[in-house]
Every structure is written in structure tokens, then in C-alpha cells.
Amino acid sequence: xxxxxxxxxxxxAGAFAAIFVVGLIAMAVITGFxxxxxxxxxxxxxxxxxxxxxxxxxxxxxxxxxxxLAALCGLVMSSTSFYPLLFSLLCGLAAExxxxxxxxESPKYNVLGYGFFSSMFVGPFLSILFAKEAFxxxxxxxxxxxxxxxxxxxxxEGIILGLIxxxxxxxxxxxxxxxxxxxxxxxxxxxx
Length: 192
Known about the structure:
By secondary structure, this protein is mostly helical. The protein has helices spanning 7-31, 35-39, 41-48, 50-59, 65-77, 83-100, 107-118, 127-130, 132-143, 145-154, 159-189.
């Protein structure tokens, strides 16, 4: 197996990234309706996007593919600060290393790698740690004062670690579902 991404694989990576980013934005919109579901965005997004990620890693099993997807997701999530991009790259690197332990072919390592990858969906919340007032001010512009007050009451100081863990757990669940989807649907259809 060649180590570098071919032109065909880069095109596939771009196509999957587009699908993944649309799913990411859709999940952000859907979960944004209430503060409680907004706090669950990493967990729920990890579950919902798991099958797409597993198909992606099976179609483009090379070094760099996961990092490309992480960078694109990080750019999309970085509308108000650069923290999501940095965190996405860190999570993408952890996923890349983890999946690489199984040569991007081991279902167990790919699921574990997706757990790390899904932790990145917490990126937009990292501003709570570093620029809390600016984060809430920005949220007020989008959602209104009542929403932000409710959100603030649900988000104590140490919530970030809990959110990262929930993203990881959602990623593990989504990865397992993705592997089952690969076996039952995509392999039978000849897609993988």
C-alpha cells in the first residue's frame, strides 16, 4: 500500500469532508434549539456522523486523511475563535495516530480513533475556559439573553472535561454503529 494520498484519494477526501461538514452543521443547528441539547452536540454528533467517518476511513485508509478532515471541521467550527481549529487538529492527530496503529484497517483502532476525533466537536465551547465573557456575548447575539442565561446555569466551570468525555463516548458509539453499517450495508452493496 502506498503511503501518500493519490489524487483520487484527495478527491474522495474532499467529497467525504463536504458530506461530513454538512452533517456537522446540520447537527449544530438541530441541537442548538435548546441549551440542554446544545450541550449534547458533541455526543450526538459523534453518534450520527460515525457511519460517514467509518466509510471515509475505509475508502481513504492513508496517513493524512483524518488530519485533512479534522482541519476542515476545525475551520468550520472556528467562526468566533481559533480554539476550535487548534483543538480539532489536536484531536485529529490523536485519531490519526490511533488509527495508524492498526494501519487504518483495524475496526477497533478506527473506533477508538473516532472517539478521539469526535472529542473535537467540543471545540466551540473551549472559549468558556479562555474567554468566557466574549463567548456568552457572542451567544447572546445568536440566541438571546434568556437562552444564554439558561445555558450558563447548565454549564458550570468544569463542564469542558465532561463535554470532551461525552464527545469521546459518542464517537465510540458512532464508530461501532459505523462498523456495523459498513458490514451490513456498504460491503453488501459493493461500496467498500
